[in-house]
Specification:
Number of strands: 8
Distance between the termini: 42 Å
Shape: globular
CATH superfamily of the largest domain: Spore Coat Polysaccharide Biosynthesis Protein SpsA, Chain A
Number of domains: 2
Oligomer: single chain
CATH class of the largest domain: Alpha Beta
CATH architecture of the largest domain: Alpha-Beta Complex
Structural class: alpha/beta
Radius of gyration: 22 Å
Number of helices: 13
CATH topology of the largest domain: Spore Coat Polysaccharide Biosynthesis Protein SpsA, Chain A
Order of helices and strands: EHEHEHEEHEHEHHEHHHHHH
Strand content: 5-15%
Largest sheet: 8 strands, mixed
Strand order of the largest sheet: 3-2-1-4-7-6-8-5
Length: 373
Amino acid sequence: MLPGRSPALSANAPRLAVLIPAHNEALGIQDTLAALMPQLLEGDRLIVIADNCSDDTAAIARSAGATVLERHNLDQRGKGYALDFGLRSLDADPPDIVVMVDADCTLLPGALRTIAQQSARSQRPVQALYLMEQPPDPSAKDSVSALAFMVKNRVRPRGLQRLGLPCLLTGTGMAFPWEMIRQSPLASGNIVEDMQLGLDLAIAGAPPQFCETARVIGRLPQQDQAATSQRTRWEHGHLQTLVTQVPRLLTTAIARQRLGSLALALDLAVPPLSLLVMLWGAAMIGAIAAGWLGVSWAIAGFLGLQGLLLLSAVMLAWARFGRSIISLGQLLSIPLYVLWKIPMYIAFIVRPQRQWVRTERDPAPPPKADSAP
């Protein structure tokens, strides 16, 4: 038995394989593995795919007790290729459930077994609640980012779940039945491969479920360049997927009479909050100009009502879920956050990001000084 691994609790417990794609994750992968090891049962496997690594990721993972697969292919880079490589290694002795966890995230106690059991029962993909931890001394921008992340990954999926509808996959803390995931096309350089995977599975008849009781925590980058790179990849990928996949989902919803596909199409069609505010602001300026020119004030009135509803939604989400994340004073900095995002959206029009780029990790904190005399 590997260190930290628990004995089997039940003969009926599904056998798991946990896949962790890792590209130069030496700074943080030990913490990720330390959180996972106690959640494994006898017969489970923990597999790290050290993908095109030039640091000590593989050695650290092996020393922690994980099985390590090293992959070297500079022409095919990205999380999708790494996951496909790990998945193919399971063909000879497949598990019941495959769980995917990012190398820079922490799966909280009990989360692994919770999503695995739900996936085994439902025979559907299951997405854990994925939230972002702020830096020790967060800026207003960090707090607004964490709030936006919480609304996207908790509030909206929770609402869909309560209506009995599926959710989007958010990238880490995902569980899949083996027979389902083994047939899925993972080997790609898609910059939001997790979102695309969830949509492909939904169209194939297996839409993902949300599991709020299982939590996985990531960390917002402290470095401005890293934060911008991360947000650019996420939001460009979201917009590209919105443009290409919403029509596909709507076609499936109509042709096969699937309410779940319609719900996913509508959820995906909502642009990132900052862009939504920008679009509303531009439309409002145009509507006011039209009113001054004597065309009609009706459009401005309608957009004003929409703006009030949008503001109300943000305030309600903050009051119910976000007061521990961001103060009311920091909430007033949202306009500055929107301004920070403008170059990102201009870049999407001029030169959208299409290749996977790893977000640089924050350096390890310095060791504490010895207080002994």
